[in-house]
Amino acid sequence: FAAKKVLIVYAHESPASFNAAAKDAAVAALTAQGCTVEVSDLYAMKFKAAATTEDITGGVKDAENFSYAKEIKLQEKLKEADLVIFQFPMYWSSVPAIMKGWMDRVLGCVLSLFAHSLLSVQDKKAMLSFTTDCPESVYSDTGINGDINVTLWPLQNGILNYCGFQVFAPQIFWDPATGSPESRSSMLEGWRTRLFNFLVDDLLPFLHLSSHWFFL
C-alpha cells in the first residue's frame, strides 16, 4: 500500500513526548517515500471538542434546512487524505477528549455528508498509533484490562470501520515511559520500518458496514 497523501491527527500537549517522537518519525518516513503529509496538531490548534456556532463562518448558508456538516469545513483535510493516522496516548482505554471531539465533529460530518452523496471515505485507510502507560501483559486475556482487541473495538470497528475506512492493524507502543532509551529507540525504528512496508494483509477483517448504514 502506497499512500500519496497522509493526514496525521495528533493529540499530545508536549513536544518532548514519545507521541511527538512517533509523529515525527511517521512524518519523516512517509515523506521519504514521496508522500505529502499534513499534521493536525489538535492541542496546538486549540481544537474545541464540542461543536459551537463559532465553527460556522460567513453566516449560515441554509437556515431552513440547517446541516452542521454542510456549514463548516472541518472535513476538508480528510477529503484529500488517502491514509489517516491517529497518534495519541491511550486515556481510560480510549482516545483523549480532544481527539474524541475531532472524531465526533469531523467524522460525524462524514456520515452526514455521505448521506447526501457529498463525501465518502470508502477508498481511504486509517489506523491507530498510540502509547500505553502499562506493559502488554496488562492488556491480555489474563490481564486486568483484558484483551487489547476488545478495548479497541469501539474505536476501530464502531467509529473507523463504521464510517467506511479500511482499517490497518494498530501500532501500539507499550509503556514507553518506563522503558530504556534503547527500547524507545527500538520502538521508533520498528514504526519507521512498518511505514515502509505497509501491506494489504495488515488490514483488519471487519465486516464492511457501508451497505448497512442508516441515519437518524
Walk me through what this model shows:
Belongs to the NAD(P)H dehydrogenase (quinone) family. This is Flavodoxin-like fold domain-containing protein. Keywords: Oxidoreductase. One of its GO terms (molecular function) is NAD(P)H dehydrogenase (quinone) activity. It is a single chain. The mean pLDDT is 86. It is built from 6 helices and 6 strands; from the N terminus they run E-H-E-H-H-E-H-E-H-E-E-H. The protein has helices at 18-32, 68-71, 76-80, 97-115, 148-163, 181-195; strands at 5-10, 36-41, 83-89, 125-131, 166-167, 171-173. Strands 1, 2, 3, 4, 5 and 6 form a 6-stranded parallel sheet that branches. The two termini are 35 Å apart.
Order of SSEs: EHEHHEHEHEEH
Strand content: 5-15%
* CATH architecture tag: 3-Layer(aba) Sandwich
Main β sheet profile: 6 strands, parallel
Overall pLDDT score: 86
What share of residues is helical? 25-40%
Number of helices: 6
Q: Report the strand count.
A: 6
- What oligomeric state is this? single chain
- What is the SS-derived class? alpha/beta
Low-confidence stretches: none
The shape is: globular
What are the salient characteristics of this protein?
216 residues, alpha/beta, Rossmann fold, six-stranded parallel sheet, 14% strand, globular
The gist of it:
By secondary structure, the protein is of the alpha/beta class. The protein contains six helices and six strands; from the N terminus they run E-H-E-H-H-E-H-E-H-E-E-H.
